[in-house]
Design goal:
Elements lengths: L9 H25 L8 H19 L6 H23 L7 H18 L9
Helix pairs in contact: 1-2, 1-3, 3-4
Length: 124
Amino acid sequence: MSKQSESMPCSERKTLVLALVAGMSGDAILSWMTMSQVSFSIFPLIALVLSLQALYQEYLRHPIAEDIPLVGLACFFVGAFGHSAFIKAQYPDAGSNFFSLIILVALVLWVGYKLGFLTPKNKK
């Protein structure tokens, strides 16, 4: 998928956004189960179930390009590490968010490169 991001179909964008939401929701549930500072909320569970269901429906309806599964997994981890960094910034006694931020920046740069945001555009 070395084309520019303008040519990316809407279904692929939807897949990547749903993977991001699934990652954030999964980390929110994990944070609730492992950290005493985070209170229970039903909304991350609802968001996780709905995003996974929508991802599955998208998988059944549209063929997947060759790079999208790996970029989708990276978007899932961007959501998870981004939420983890946010929670640890909100509750500093829960630990450092340095590792989460480093992984987050590396993954965002890699996703940007794969989607063509970091490559120079050819002027015609």
